[in-house]
Amino acid sequence: ATAPQFEQAARFVQGLHARSTLVLAGNHDLPLFAWWMRWGRAYERFAEQFGVDHEPVRQAGPFYVVGVNTTRAWRHERGSLSSAQIDHVADLLGRAPPDAWRIVASHHPLVARDAADRDHRPHRAEEALQRWRAAGAHMMLSGHAHQPALLNPLPGLWASHAGTAVSHRLRHGSPNSLVILTLEPSGTAEGGWARCATRWDYDTTAGEFQRVLRETVG
To answer: Over the stretch 1-40, which tens digit does the pLDDT of each residue have?
Structure first.
């Protein structure tokens, strides 16, 4: 991405007027043509707009979100996780409030939606899933593949893959989409609140996002 594109992205995030935001770098946020910047300056443009913390943690009410950076300066597309990162995220999850909805966000998906999607997973993805689930993770959020999906890879653990939210460069025949996570009153869920994931797809005829899927995920 170019410096003007980072500025535009920052204005978009600011325009959401959200009480709290968590922004992670993706592989396209690393220099491609200015390859020399990858040595020591790979995240310079990103940091100018979104700060130097590439693995932010946010807590807002019952939501506890841990960000993990799966991009690498020496790789333009594929992602990776280090053993230290896996340990660190597991430690953070273990220190979350007991009633929190524990969520891990990464650019690259740790769960493959099909065989063709396996190459999108970062190195050590399976190890991370097992460790983080054992540490109390409930939900994995990711992007990269531009194909929306909601998966249940392990008991008690869900994975939500983001599609393309606002860009006109759509892929795989999927429309623009977004997923909203909510806590909703429930007479059957533990604690009286159900964790829900709702997907909205953009309908070009109606000119608006419309709900296409709602799933209880805990």
So the answer is: 889 999 999 999 999 999 999 999 999 988 776 766 777 7
- Helices 83-94 and 125-134 pack at an angle, to 10 degrees, of 20
Q: How far apart are the first and last CA of the chain?
A: 37
- Residue 34's contacts (CB-CB under 8 Å, 6 or more residues apart) are none
Residue-level pLDDT at 36: 63
CA angle, residues 140, 71, 96, in degrees to nearest 5? 35
Instruction: Tally the residues of the chain.
Output: 218
Collect the ranges in the chain with pLDDT lower than 50.
Answer: none
Where are the chain's structural domains? Answer: 3-216
The whole-number pLDDT of residue 118 equals 80
Please give the CATH topology (third level) of the domain spanning 3-216: Transcription Regulator spoIIAA (3.30.750)
Q: Which strands, in side-by-side order, build the sheet including 57-60? A: 57-60, 63-67, 101-105, 139-142, 157-161, 149-154
Q: Are the beta carbons of 44 and 78 closer than 8 angstroms?
A: no
Q: What is the pLDDT of residue 66?
A: 99
Amino acid at 176: N
The pTM for the full model equals: 0.93
Do 100 and 138 form a contact (C-beta atoms < 8 A)? Answer: no
Q: What element of type H or E holds 140?
A: strand 139-142
